[in-house]
Structure formats: structure tokens, C-alpha cells
Amino acid sequence: MKIKLDENLPASLAETLRQAGHDTDTVPEEGLTGQPDQMVWQSTQQSGRLLITQDLDFSDIHQYQPGTHHGILLIRLAEPSRSQLLMCVRQLIQT
Predict the structure, then answer these.
(1) What is the mean predicted confidence (pLDDT) over 27-54?
(2) Counting C-beta atoms within 10 Å of the first and last residue's C-beta, which end of the chain has fewer, N or C?
(3) In terms of C-beta distances under 8 Å and separation of at least 24 residues, what long-range contacts does 7-12 make, across chains too?
């Protein structure tokens, strides 16, 4: 699977996904840290990737209509610690 991790996720998650066989890049690796969401979105779509993020701006289904893009995984946890985020994404990717 081709995945892009937003800047609000732990960098260690990229390596975890790569070890699981996923083609993973990150917003910081591409020099997009701090850039507007639209720039991140354009980069994600141009490279045909699923975006994994915690940014609620990407939850707007009017702007990001389901079925019109490569996918968004919006993660919202009650207690968003690094370990909880890693565990959650690992479980989702495995299923």
C-alpha cells in the first residue's frame, strides 16, 4: 500500500509501516512541514497515496468526498499518546 503520514504522527510510524511492506513517505521527509493542507493533499494525490492524519480539516466530506481520492485515514483517539497511535495504526493496517 502507498501511504503518506502527516506531520502530526510519530516519525517512527513510517519505519513500522515500511517494515510491514508498505511504500511510506512523510510530510516532513518531503519538506512540506507547516505547509497548507491543500499542498499536502496535492502531493498525496499526485503520488497516489492514502493519507494518515490526525488533522480534523481532512474530515470535511464536502471537500474530500469519499470515492474521489486515494483515501484518508483520520485517527482520533481519546488518549493520543505515541504508543496508542502506533498500536492503533498497526492494528488497522494488519486488518
Answers:
(1) 96
(2) C
(3) 7/32, 7/33, 7/34, 8/53, 8/54, 8/55, 9/52, 9/53, 9/54, 9/75, 9/85, 9/89, 10/82, 10/85, 10/86, 12/82, 12/86
